[in-house]
Design a protein that fits this description.
about 300 residues; alpha/beta; Rossmann fold; 2 domains; 8 strands; globular
Length: about 300
C-alpha cells in the first residue's frame, strides 16, 4: 500500500470518527447543537451579535436592519431569549427598521448574576440602561409575556422614551395563573409534555433524547425562572393601575388559544388602554409571535410605520 493510499485511508477513518463523535455529541447535548446551528444561521443572515454593559451587567443583544432606520426594541419573556423573536424581527428589518433584541439578565447569552432579583421592575431598569448604553433616546418598544410586563413598566415610568408600544400575549395584570407555574422549569419529560400542551395548540412530539437534555438544562438554570416567577406572583408591580395612564399608541396582539395568559386578559388590557388596538390571532397560542409570524408580521409593520 503506497503512502498516498495510506493517507487517504487515515483521512477517511478520521472523517468517520468525527462523524461518530458529532453524532454521539448531538444525542447527548442536542440543545447545544441546535442553538449552535441557530447562531450560525444568524451570522450567515447578517444578524449582529454583541454585548454591552447596562446597569453594571453584561447584556447580550441581536441587531438587524439598516443602522439608520427608526428603532424598534423587542423584549422576550420568561424562560425565553432574543432568538425567540427570530420569525418576527425580519419583517421589521425588511421594512427599514433597526431592530435591537436584548437578552434580559439571566437569559440567553446575557450575564446571570446570582445577586440579581430577576423581578420585572429590575429587568425594566436594565432595559432602560440598555437604551442609554446604545444611545437610544426614544424607540418603539415591544414585549412578549413577561417582556410585555417589562415594557409596560418602562412606558409608564419613562413615556418620553417610548413612541409606540407593542404588547404580545403580555403578562402584568393582577391575575393568578390557573395552571402549575412550576411547569416553566420542568423536572421530567412528562412535565415538559404538560408545559408544551400549555404553550401551543397541538404540540409536536419531542424525541426522548431532546426532552432529557431540555430537562437537564431546566434543572441547571431553572433557579433564574423560579426567582422571576416568585416575584411576578406577588403582583407587586401589577400593571392594572398604570395601563390607563399610557398615552402613546398601543398595539395588543394575542393568540386566541393562549392557555398561559388567556385572551380575556388581552381584552382587559385593551379596555384599560382606550387608544389601543387589539389583534386576536386565530388558531394560535402563547407562542403566537414565534409560530404565527406570517399573520402578525404585516400588521406589526403597519402599526410601527404610522
Amino acid at each position: 500500500m503506497t503512502g498516498t493510499v495510506r493517507l487517504r485511508w487515515k483521512l477517511l477513518w478520521l472523517a468517520v470518527a468525527l462523524v461518530l463523535v458529532a453524532g454521539i455529541g448531538f444525542l447527548l447535548r442536542p440543545v447545544s447543537y441546535l442553538m449552535g446551528w441557530l447562531y450560525l444561521e444568524e451570522d450567515l443572515g447578517g444578524v449582529e451579535s454583541r454585548t454591552v454593559q447596562a446597569e453594571g451587567y453584561g447584556v447580550h443583544y441581536l441587531a438587524e436592519g439598516p443602522a439608520s432606520g427608526p428603532v424598534v426594541v423587542l423584549v422576550h419573556g420568561l424562560g425565553s431569549r432574543a432568538e425567540d423573536w427570530r420569525n418576527l424581527a425580519p419583517y421589521l428589518a425588511r421594512a427599514g427598521f433597526r431592530v435591537y433584541i436584548p437578552d434580559l439578565p439571566g437569559y440567553g447569552r446575557s450575564q446571570k448574576p446570582v445577586d440579581f432579583s430577576y423581578s420585572v421592575r429590575d429587568e425594566a431598569a436594565v432595559v432602560v440602561g440598555f437604551l442609554d448604553a446604545m444611545g437610544l433616546k426614544q424607540v418603539e418598544l415591544g414585549g412578549w409575556s413577561m417582556g410585555g410586563w417589562v415594557v409596560a413598566l418602562i412606558a409608564a415610568d419613562h413615556p418620553e422614551r417610548v413612541s409606540r408600544l407593542m404588547l404580545f400575549d403580555a403578562a402584568g395584570l393582577d391575575v393568578k395563573p390557573l395552571w402549575n407555574t412550576g411547569l416553566f422549569t420542568p423536572d421530567s419529560p412528562q412535565q415538559l409534555d404538560q408545559l408544551d400542551a400549555l404553550l401551543m395548540p397541538d404540540p409536536p412530539h419531542v424525541p426522548a433524547f431532546l426532552a432529557r437534555d431540555i430537562v437537564r438544562i431546566s434543572r441547571r438554570d431553572g433557579w433564574v425562572i423560579q426567582r422571576a416567577a416568585a416575584s411576578m406572583l406577588t403582583a407587586h408591580d401589577a400593571t392594572d393601575n398604570l395601563l390607563p395612564r399610557l398615552k402613546m399608541p398601543v398595539l395588543i396582539v394575542w393568540g386566541a388559544r393562549d392557555r398561559i395568559i388567556p385572551l380575556d386578559q388581552g381584552q382587559t388590557i385593551h379596555w384599560l388602554i382606550p387608544q389601543s388596538q387589539l389583534s386576536v390571532i386565530a388558531g394560535c397560542g402563547y407562542l403566537a409571535p414565534l409560530q404565527c409570524s406570517a399573520a402578525i408580521g404585516p400588521e406589526m409593520v403597519a402599526f410601527a410605520r404610522h
